[in-house]
Amino acid sequence: MKEDKILNNSFSSGELHHDDLSQPLKVDSRVSSLYEDQLGENIIEHRTKQMLDDELYRIFVNSPYYTKYKSIKRVDKNDMMKMYYYFKEHLSKLENKHFSNMEFFIGFAEFFMVNYDQLYADIGVMDKEFILKELNEKYHLSSRIKTKRLF
Fold this sequence. Notes:
By secondary structure, the chain is an all-alpha fold. It is built from seven helices and two strands.
């Protein structure tokens, strides 16, 4: 510790001796929720997911489905596909924000608590193809996923 001659208080010079640290540094549990996005593995994915959730909620509040589904309950199968494409269309109209098909698929399923397999089985063929293409580009899954192009 050094002493400030003007204010007459002590301060740390910022020099840290790593040998003195016996345990890893941790964020206190009382404030860890404030740094949730920064403590994860990928801060950009976390913030993109949060932006998508915010946009989905904004669209949901202004949608014709709000009154029917504002209390938490299961989405009717007939409405699910209409809602999927309604939300996808409204998100595509946003100027500054672009979400991939995969991000939208996951965000929609989590927002409305829909099973991924059920949603994937119901969406259109072109949407499935776009999702598979993005998965392959991002995670190089072509050797694991055995699919054939329909068109």
